[in-house]
Amino acid sequence: MRRIVSIAVAALAVAGVFAARSGMRQSAPEEGGKKLIDLKSDLMGPVAPGDSVVFLVGNFAAQHNGAVITCDSAVRYSDMRIEFFGNVLINKNTTYIYGDRAEYDGDLNEARVYSDIVKVIDGDATLYTYDFRFNTKTNVGRFDRGGVLTNRENLLEAVRGYYYADAKELVAVERVEMRNDEYELRGDSVVYNMATDNAFFYERTNIWNRDGDYLYADRGAYEKLDTLYLVTRNGYVLTEKQEMWSDSIDFYRPRNHVILRRDVQIDDTEHKVLAFGDYGEYWKEPGNALLTRDPAVVSYDLSQGDSLFMRSDSMFLFTINEAAERRAAEPPIRWPARRGRFRRPIRCRPRRTPKPGRRTERIPRESAAIRCAVPRNLRRPLPDGPIRWRRRRCPTRCGARRIRCGRRPSIRSTR
Length: 415
Description:
Elements: H1 2-21, E1 30-31, E2 34-35, E3 38-40, E4 43-46, E5 54-64, E6 67-78, E7 81-92, E8 95-105, E9 110-122, E10 125-135, E11 140-143, E12 147-151, E13 154-158, E14 160-164, E15 169-179, E16 183-193, E17 199-209, E18 214-223, E19 228-233, E20 235-238, E21 242-246, E22 248-252, E23 257-268, E24 273-283, E25 289-292, E26 296-299, E27 308-311, E28 314-317, H2 322-329, E29 349-350, E30 370-371, E31 389-391, E32 402-404
Antiparallel strand pairs: 1-2, 3-5, 4-5, 5-6, 6-7, 7-8, 8-9, 9-10, 10-11, 10-12, 11-14, 12-13, 13-15, 14-15, 15-16, 16-17, 17-18, 18-19, 18-20, 19-22, 20-21, 21-23, 22-23, 23-24, 24-25, 24-26, 25-28, 26-27, 29-30, 31-32
């Protein structure tokens, strides 16, 4: 009797294998409003005789909610629960998830992928993490053990995160760090758009831009198109010479233009000036500021003898560069007109030899050099060291052949 049962089980297993090889495909009817998982493989059979758990090997593929899952082998525990092994790939639309092992629960529509490094690719963005959960119905994924996202020149790191495939956004939570060519950010949470490179930040966010300016905010955003930093709560800006506080700050970095709203305070440490108001604008170059809505200014420069307090409906503060104004007030230096080839050419004239019978000292041969008619105030000093001689024709073609020269012959370098 036992032998007859064993033969029957073996026959059923062989029938299942031949059915799988013949291309049999699991049907996917809807039961209770839920879709079953479609399966396909070259070889299929029970893990143990009489067991409902089935193994699937060879060109395996599964499909559920539009997501396609491929791997080397799989084990089906039930109609809605499957485990995948070896070279696991989950693809839906533009999202590709790579791992070594995965578990899929059709009741929850959730795939959980495991690997030494799980890789998620969506366009130019690539996410690296240790385990990743992806909902095939809502197209939302998440990681809990740390992750790193690279997208063009941007790099983002966080302990936890949520990936929204439809919106192309990554919500990074807990010890977030983000850096690129423009700025470096550290905060508690950041919402990063992978398509536009815009970022929204919250709670204790610190930003350093490439010019060395520092910005703090409890809520704000960064827009890459205009290189604009928007702060909507507890804003603080620190530059090399100024400090600013305000509830709301718009910082246009290319123009170094700052707009401040509500509870504005500006401290100019270079000129020792404090400014207050409810609305203000500041230009880093040349350092001017506009204040309205109950503005007040206090100068605490002790070198002036005492502090100064001013109040008005609106104020415009100018930064005066005394050195630049002093240079502008000085009369321009008038250089003598250059005498060159565009005017009457300067002709070199050799020293005349003394007439016979005149009592003059004999001129040494070395000193019989050509003297140019260039004024003394325009002559350049000769280089130090021994004078080198060249036998070349004068550039003005006056017939002279001896020019002392330390570099390229020119009229202004001769004497």
